[in-house]
Amino acid sequence: MTKKALIITGIGVVVGAIAGYLYYFYVGCSSGTCAITSKPLNSSLYGAVVGGLLLNMFVKSSKKS
Predict the structure, then answer these.
(1) Which residue has the higher pLDDT, 40 or 32?
(2) Which domain range does residue 37 map to?
(3) Distances (CA, A) of 38 to 17, 24, 25, 28, 31
(4) pTM of the prediction?
């Protein structure tokens, strides 16, 4: 991966983790039975993975022949 691709993916991970925590904080799961949103760590990690994958889709790969 290039340096630009790592930066873009890293930004996605950070923004996704923040979004995951904010989702936990504002929406969450009051009963505690939800697998993802019952704990802030789970929600943040899930958001980080989704954010990283989402922004990684916009990284152009070089064509090798």
Answers:
(1) 40
(2) 18-56
(3) 15, 7, 10, 6, 8
(4) 0.84
